[in-house]
């Protein structure tokens, strides 16, 4: 199975070269080692699922696939990015998309973080003013640092496309939680009529 994946990704890299856009330089050998957890995020209006086979679903529709070697392809199998072993994120033609670590990510050649995944799963975006804006919450990213890095990689790629930035989560509620209807638990005082 792993050899089939490697052959498929190598074929995709060769096809990209023939089509004009070149995959990142070390595409065939791969980049950073990642763990692929079963994880879910609510980012703005989008529900993002990261599946153990690397597929990334947005509101149930396959959008991206990442592999355990840091490669990211779109649903058509075209290279989107590759996370290098040193944390740099390269796009086709070796354009620098930023850096992604276990906890923070930066854009382009910036030295400061623009995204952070908190240990509780909250995804935070840093505004230019330094203000922190909650973008949503990941569940299932915490088993290992490499799993957290995979979730942050997905977040970075999606956020650069504007997904999850439509509705910053803020207000008097716990980050990532919103009022709504559904089963719940609470405490209260009741008044009853007895016999």
From the structure above, extract its key features.
single chain; 195 residues; globular; alpha+beta; disordered N terminus
Commentary on this structure:
With 195 residues, this protein is an alpha+beta fold. It has two helices and twelve strands; from the N terminus they run H-E-E-E-E-E-E-E-E-E-E-E-E-H. The chain is globular.
Brief write-up:
With 195 residues, this protein is of the alpha+beta class. It contains two helices and twelve strands; from the N terminus they run αββββββββββββα. Strands 1-2-3-4-5-6-7-8-9-10-11-12 form a twelve-stranded antiparallel barrel.
Secondary-structure map:
Layout: H1 2-19, E1 39-43, E2 46-50, E3 55-58, E4 61-66, E5 71-74, E6 79-83, E7 88-90, E8 96-100, E9 104-107, E10 115-117, E11 122-126, E12 132-139, H2 145-160
Antiparallel strand pairs: 1-2, 1-12, 2-3, 3-4, 4-5, 5-6, 6-7, 7-8, 8-9, 9-10, 10-11, 11-12
